[in-house]
Structures are given as structure tokens and as C-alpha cells.
Design brief:
The protein has seven helices and twelve strands. The chain has one domain: Deoxyribonuclease I, Chain A. The two termini are 13 Å apart. α4 links the parallel β7 and β8. α4 runs parallel beside α5. The strands form two sheets. A six-stranded mixed β-sheet has the order 3-4-2-1-12-11. A six-stranded mixed β-sheet has the order 5-6-7-8-10-9. By secondary structure, the chain is α+β, with helices and mostly antiparallel strands. 24% of the residues lie in helices and 24% in strands.
Amino acid sequence: MRIISVNVNGIQPAVERGLLSWLQAQNADVICLQDTRASAVELDDPALQLDGYFLYACDAQVPDQGGVALYSRLQPKAVISGLGFDAADRYGRYLQADFDKVSIATLLLPSGQNGDDDLNQKFKFMDDFAHYLDKQRRKRREYIYCGSLFVAHQKLDVKNWRDCQLTPGFLAPERAWMDEVIGTMGYVDALREVSREADQFSWWPDTEQAQMLNLGYRFDYQLLTPGLRRFVRSVRLPRQPRFSQHAPLIADYDWTLSV
């Protein structure tokens, strides 16, 4: 099973950069997009379909903000949108597809980079989502959360970490939240199951210097319930091609998706 996750920073500009033709060639079973900035009606456009895939979307109540989408080769048993709290549902930040024994979700957190209000919204979302994850881990099925979290968990997940400690995305409370999810709750960071290498980033500030010097952060994850740990085969964050400020996250699992 191959799952691809990518924050597109708006699906229309990403498509103009070749996103769909690249995705069509990747042989993925499920593709999770974040920050589509498009309504479900707009995503019905034939130009945004992938041959051989079902497309599902959750849009924001606020135009041109947020939104997530999911392409799947198999038609899921069920598709669930929203998390039941305003910080998620108002901005279309969550969509889940249920298959046999496993659910795959696409998730977008607030970036926290746009001032104090945005950062406070992010902390509220993180608190609410932690309660949700705590409940989910008690269920008798596996989960894969493809999340654009805007949190670099460890020092090796950000370039020049000492200089970033007061920057949203690497603040102590954000990293402590990741410690809770991955440590206390036992969720699995798929990339770190197969690699401890540094400088594997998924987001870069939109400046020429940041690109040239690889001044990046690892903001994008596939988080798994513990029962999937042994099925992780490979995970990679290719720097090219890029369709937004984020790199695609490609994970292969020794798991056959079925309904």
C-alpha cells in the first residue's frame, strides 16, 4: 500500500505546476491533500479528477481557506468529514476514509504563523485533537493520519534549531504536544520508523535563501496507530518536484488495502 500526502497551498496553482500528472504516475493507493483552498463543488471539476480514483473533499466555511481532499483507488466503506469542534470543522481541516481494518485521514492544522490569534487557534486545535486521538486509540482498528501539522518535533527536524526555538513551528509547547502524541499516546511517526537522518524537511520559507541553504522544517507526517508500526516499509520526502512550499510525503506499507 502506498500513501502520498501533500499540502498543496491551493490546489489550482499546484495543478498548474503539474501536480495531477505527477500523482497519476506514482501508483498510490490513497492520496491525501491539505490546504486545497477550494470548495467541494470546485473539486468536482473534471480537470481535477485522477483517472482510476474516487475523489472526496471537505471544504471550509470560509472561502479560499483550508480544505482537505482525498483520492482513493478503492471506494471506502465510509467517508467522515469533520472532528466535531469548530477550529477543525469551520476550516475543513479533517476528512477520513474507512476501509477494512484501517482508516486513512487527511488533516490540516492551523500554521500558527500569522500572528497571535492564529497561534492561539492552533493551540486550541492541538488540545482538542489530542483528546480526539486519545479516544481513537481505544478503538479496534488501525488509523493513518496524514497530517500537515506545522510542528517540527525534534532538533533534527529543523535546520539551525537553536535559532528557531522562538518561532512558531518549533515552540516548546508545540514540541511537547508531539511528545504527548508520539510518546505518551503511543502513535508512530512513520518516517522515524525507517530513518533517523537529519535534514529531511517538508516545508521551507518562501525565500531564495531558504531554498538554497535548505533552511527547512519537517512539518508533514504520517502518524500511525501502534499496530501498523511493523508494516512501515519505506518513507521519503523528495525535494523535487515541488508543487507548493511543502514536499510530498510518500510512504509504502506492507499492507494490502481492501474494503
